Amino acid sequence: MTAQATAATPARPSLRGRALALVFVFMLIGGALRSVEAGCQNSLKLALHNVFLCGVISYAVALTGVGLIFAVTLALSKNRRWPSRADLKAMPRWAPFGGLTGGAAIFAMIAVASSVGVSTFNALIIAGQMLLATVMDHYGVMGFPRRRITVQRLAGCALIIVGSYLMAKY
């Protein structure tokens, strides 16, 4: 992303108080469900003995669930805005491919989580996420507002890496 495009990224309002607390709770629940997901994926792998079939089944179930949520949302809300042709043309070409990165994470989970344990797997996934996210925030890429790398943020990343090591070792 160019400096001009980065500067054009609109500032987003910061969450405060209860709204921020609710977002944190939601994220903690989502994170906890990743451990349940790892257990489901591992059980699927043990039953089917095929990593790729596990991935296909996992995504088929996810697509079905999202489709049902989408259908219920459409049925209950009349004010959903649909993208215009101009919206679709303005969308970055790479934007729809986020699911592929999620697919890579799913295959990693299926293939290796049982080898290192779900706690170590999740700790290392989080460490990798934090390192790249810190760089992405610093440069304000992919539509995110810029958040400079600071000593405190780097210390947070280092603590996550140390925590990952401790999870793996003990």
TrEMBL record:
Annotated Gene Ontology cellular component terms: plasma membrane
Spans through the membrane: 48-76, 97-115, 121-139, 151-168
Keywords: Membrane, Transmembrane, Transmembrane helix
Pfam (any one): DMT_YdcZ
Protein name: Transporter family-2 protein
